[in-house]
Amino acid sequence: MKLYIIRHCQTAGNASFKLQGAKTPGQLTERGRLQLAALKRFFSQEKIQTVYSSPLERALQTARGLSTNKPVTRPELNEIDFGDLEGTTHEETKAQEPDLFDQIFDTPTKRFPNGESLQDVQNRIQPLVKRLQGEKGNPTVVIVGHNILNRVLLATFLDIPLEACRMFKLKNASIAEIDANPLHRRLYLLHNGFASIGKEKVKE
User: Fold this and answer.
1) C-alpha–C-alpha distance, residues 91 and 41, integer Å
2) Which of 9, 60, 91, 203 lies deepest, with the highest CB count within 10 Å?
3) pLDDT, position 201
4) CA–CA gap between residue 148 and residue 20 (Å, rounded)
5) Hey, what CATH topology would domain 2-194 get?
6) Which residues are CB-neighbours of 137 under 8 A, at least 6 positions away?
């Protein structure tokens, strides 16, 4: 299976560097819509069989714009729950919990305060991952998700430790292309180029 894992396009929360987790729907900005147009052009020649999406609005808006196929929403594709830190800025989070993100990535069972851990995210996506790995033939499938969710998806499909999640830099509208066959486990593409679209034209 050819599998594309896409991070949703820019939202106002992204523009203001806020933590948007499982409790923040999010709406695409004008710049986000420009990024989406670029994604649509990228996939214009692909015969996509299925688009799976997080149920959060920012992901759904992205998924709906990629293909004429109606997205299949899956609750397990929700972003990690940031718990008490939901909606705080990166600077505020660093002031409150200077080493928290290092701890989260170094210890996958470490949870955000009243939130989830990387291990929690992996546990909920495992059934979907196994189902996709068992797909017959060579369909093209797209998953539209989120920053940390997508890192965990990549680690799980590629069978690498969760501690390695931080090596993946996934900006808004990022594209990762992998072979989902567990016998191959190949990463073919990791593209962040669309994140810069609209940077000069649109000031948030």
Assistant:
1) 35
2) 9
3) 52
4) 10
5) Rossmann fold (3.40.50)
6) 1
Per the structure block, which two tokens stand in for 149?
A: 């969710």
Cα distance between residue 124 and residue 185, in whole Å = 20
Burial class (CB in 10 A: 0-12, 13-18, 19+), 197: buried
199, 30 Cβ separation under 8 angstroms: no
Q: Which residues pair with 28 in a beta bridge?
A: 11
Task: Determine phi and psi for 50, rounding to 5 degrees.
Answer: -145, 140
Instruction: Locate 185 and state its tokens.
Output: 């486990």
102 secondary structure, DSSP code = H
For the chain of 204 residues, list the mean pLDDT of each consecutive stretch of 10: 96 96 95 97 94 98 93 98 95 92 97 97 98 90 98 97 96 96 92 90 46
The tokens describing 49, both together, are: 């069989």
What 3 state SS string does 19-52 have? CCCCCCCCCECHHHHHHHHHHHHHCCCCCEEEEE
Distance CA 22, CA 146 (A): 10
